[in-house]
Amino acid sequence: MNRDTLLHIIRFISLILIQVLILNHVDFLGYLNPYIYIIFILLAPININKSLFLLLSFILGLTIDIFGDSGGVHAAACLVIAFFRPIALRTVFGLSYEFQTVKLSNTRFGEKLAYVILLVLTHHIVLFSLEIFNFSHILLIAKKTLFTSLFTIVITMLILVLFRRNDS
Questions:
Q1: Which of 37, 64, 78, 122 has the highest CB neighbour number within 10 Å of its CB?
Q2: Which pLDDT value is given to residue 26?
């Protein structure tokens, strides 16, 4: 097992523990809850096996669902963004993604922010649409998606900047 694989395993377990033990108990303004566990999906290697990545994303979401008793909404949202991730990478990074030279730690802040915004918004739209699952509550879905996304994006960007790896 190499150093990068160990790092990803530690990141996977740490993000789950932080989410279920701390952040799931934070309800800022009554309903805002940052979902930083998706950082695992954001930072997964570009060249990871697609089937393995989808499986790990599903397990990540399912674990959050088990601890939060949320019936599979996190697993579904994680699968959607894992599936959508190559499109987001291609959209934001273009040729750098095509040639698999993208390293999130080496990208400009604006590109990193655009990538995080795309995936967090996608995750939260799926999550809250499935959680509420009632079209008559579209404004509630939009409000929860917008505010929780902003909260998650700010915290995610802080984490990515503070724990940035300086590798080439």
A1: 78
A2: 81
What's the rounded Cα separation, in Å, for the pair 85 and 2?
24
Across 45-64, average pLDDT = 94
Residues shown for the chain = 168
**146 Cβ contact list (under 8 Å, min separation 6):** none
Label each residue of 82-122 as H, E or C.
Answer: HHHHHHHHHHHHCHHHHCCCCCHHHCCHHHHHHHHHHHHHH
d(CA 126, CA 148): 13
Provide the 8-state DSSP code for 44: S
The CA distance from 52 to 71, in Å, is: 23
Query: Which residue, chain included where needed, has tokens 């997964």?
Result: 44
This prediction's pTM: 0.90
Task: Return contacts of 49-52, CB within 8 angstroms, 24+ apart.
Answer: none
CA distance 59 to 56: 5
